[in-house]
Design goal:
There is one protein chain. With about 475 residues, this protein is α+β, with helices and mostly antiparallel strands. It has one domain: tRNA-splicing ligase RtcB, CATH 3.90.1860. The chain is built from 16 helices and 19 strands. The longest helix is centred in the middle third of the chain and has 36 residues. The two termini are about 35 Å apart. It comes from Methanoculleus taiwanensis. Its cofactor is Mn(2+). Monomer. One of its GO terms (molecular function) is GTP binding.
């Protein structure tokens, strides 16, 4: 382990106050010995840097998929007091509300036999992918404003979803306090043609099979059975979200000086939560988050169209299990030292994991906790988990978000070619569709931590518990 870091439990490590000057609280992360071999010193330094920020509450936290990011580490969770604390774009990231959703189906593996390639090709035609991908739909500025303020609600109202989709999204697919006036013309310009597109990088759309049920009552509540075919969608707020982050970083860098905030890294640029600059960023970020939910909803609409037509079933036969955000800041109420407080919780590459009885959970999940969806990397398992009371007590209701990179995209391309990877996955029965082999190499399974070890840690610590294992059958890469 990195010098200065102390073991605090079997899978728990503490970065003590003093690791870097000015720390107000300790850092704490959850990691196994195996995952510790890939831990970057820079990510731990970032975790400690976050602990120096004004108004931070509890600990600066990181999940087992921790790795180096912009300012905050990816896999990081930090909560700030609403009066004395700050809000920071670095704690959210550039792909605001990058998130993931899972759609169930009545299909089994046998239904895919002989149709899998055709199904992948049809979905690939229906869902635009790749850098700068543009939607076939023409949206007006009024439509875009509707997406930014009402999220999934706008989609359902305009025929891109089912009413039941609303309750099966975190925050019902819409954050309050969205302020379109805080979104620049350039961000709007980037968002207009990209609604309903997958994008590039680590974004994907997978056909999966529920290979193993690990918690039968919870799986039953989520409508998941062994051998069932599901569809997983992973993407975010596209160019609009990136531009919102870029625009407001410039504003908050000035605000950091204006309010006399001393930081060890300029990438932690921030402003008091209740300051004009802080409220403006939150309003713009909420717009981007709502746009991201709407984006995943419009992709869901296209997937339902293709699957329903291919197998002669109805949209209602393809229910949304749940949709979770990975990169977001929210105002939430949590109990700290026996007292309930409103906090500004930043999750950057982390998933909300609210436990049984918590607020904002669909009635059907109230007794088991919210679904937590952890995607693997192309060729590796994805997992369905559920939120816990332990997460509420220890991590502001948060858990990991995915496998977490261990190789840069450049290094990944040196280690394997896209063609070789495609052939290797085909031998395993996994069909892959992408615009280029280069994209495949960048996102090779070897570029990521093993997803099974990441979820094993959060399950053992109790930050979320395993419900089902899902295996990829077909992959569309962004």
């Amino acid at each position: 382990m990195i010098e200065g870091v102390k073991r605090a439990g079997l899978f728990e490590w503490e970065v003590p106050i003093g690791f870097v000057p000015g720390m107000r609280v300790p850092g704490r992360f959850f990691l196994s010995e195996d995952l510790g071999q890939t831990l970057e010193a820079g990510a731990v330094q970032q975790l400690a840097n976050v602990a120096t920020m004004p108004g931070i509450v509890g600990n600066s936290l990181a999940m087992p998929d921790i790795h180096w990011g912009y300012g905050f580490p990816i896999g990081g969770v930090a909560a700030f007091d609403m009066t004395e604390g700050v809000i920071s774009p670095g704690g959210v990231g550039f792909d605001i509300n990058c998130g993931v959703r899972l759609i169930a189906s009545p299909l089994t593996g046998d239904d895919l036999a002989g149709t899998k390639r055709e199904l992948i090709e049809e979905i690939f035609k229906a869902v635009p992918t790749g850098v700068g991908a543009r939607s076939a739909r023409t949206l007006s500025n009024k439509d875009l404003t509707g997406m930014m303020t009402d999220g999934v609600g706008w989609c359902v109202e305009h025929g891109f979803g089912l009413p039941s989709d609303l309750v099966h999204c975190e925050e019902q697919g819409r954050m309050e306090h969205a302020d379109p006036d805080a979104v620049s013309a350039k961000a709007r310009q980037r968002g207009l043609p990209q609604a309903g597109t997958l994008g590039a990088g680590n974004h994907f759309l997978e056909i999966q099979i529920a290979e193993e049920i690990l918690d039968a009552p919870a799986a039953a509540a989520m409508g998941i059975t062994e051998g069932q075919i599901c569809f997983m969608i992973h993407c975010g707020s596209r160019g609009l979200g990136h531009q919102v982050c870029t625009d407001h970083l410039q504003i908050l860098e000035k605000a950091t000086k204006k309010y006399g905030i001393s930081l060890p890294d300029r990438q932690l640029a921030c402003a008091p939560v209740e300051s004009p600059e802080g409220r403006s960023y939150f309003g713009a970020m909420a717009c981007a988050a709502n746009y991201a939910w709407a984006n995943r909803q419009m992709i869901t609409h296209e997937v339902r169209n293709v699957v329903a037509k291919t197998f002669g079933i109805a949209d209602e036969d393809l229910p949304l299990v749940y949709d979770v955000a990975h990169n977001v800041a929210k105002y939430e109420r949590h109990t700290v030292d026996g007292r309930e407080r409103e906090l500004c919780v930043h999750r950057k590459g982390a998933t909300r994991a609210f436990g049984p009885g918590a607020s904002d959970i669909p009635p059907v999940y109230e007794e088991i906790g919210q679904p937590v969806i952890i995607p693997g990397s192309m060729g590796t398992s994805s997992y369905l988990l559920r939120g816990t009371a332990t997460a509420m007590e220890r991590s502001f209701g948060s858990t990991c978000h995915g496998a977490g990179r261990v190789l840069s995209r450049t290094q990944a391309k040196k280690d394997i070619t896209g063609k070789a990877l495609r052939e290797q996955l085909a031998k395993e029965g996994i069909l892959v569709r992408a615009h280029s082999d280069s994209v495949l190499a960048e996102e090779a399974p070897g570029a990521y931590k093993p997803s099974n070890e990441v979820v094993r840690v959060v399950d053992r610590v109790g930050l979320s518990t395993l419900v089902a294992r899902l295996e990829p059958q077909g992959v569309i890469k962004g």
